[in-house]
Specification:
With about 90 residues, the protein is mostly helical. Helix content is about 75%, strand content about 0%.
Length: about 90
């Protein structure tokens, strides 16, 4: 690959990391919107799970997945930067 191709790859990775960061913020904001069961209302079968702990676990799982993806992308970006630097150094040496 050429240095320009590596740079393009780095830009795409940066955009994906930014998108994951936005997803992470949205997911974290969901933590503040979690509410308990309103026992004053009539009970209706077929509704979602009202247990707060299951919702917190779900949010935690989502955040863990996002963190793993970000780590992978950051490592891929660093690999691409290293390859780009090597490519430029070889080109300059010629």
């Amino acid at each position: 690959m050429t240095a320009e191709e590596y740079l393009s790859q780095i830009r795409r990775i940066d955009k994906r990391i930014e998108a994951l960061s936005r997803d992470e913020e949205k997911t974290r904001s969901r933590l503040y919107n979690i509410s308990g069961i309103d026992y004053s209302k009539d009970r209706v079968d077929g509704g979602g799970d009202g247990d707060i702990s299951s919702r917190l676990i779900c949010v935690d799982n989502i955040l863990t997945g996002i963190a793993k993806k970000k780590i992978y992308l950051i490592e891929a970006r660093e690999t691409a930067r290293t390859a780009q630097t090597r490519t430029r150094a070889r080109k300059a040496a010629q």
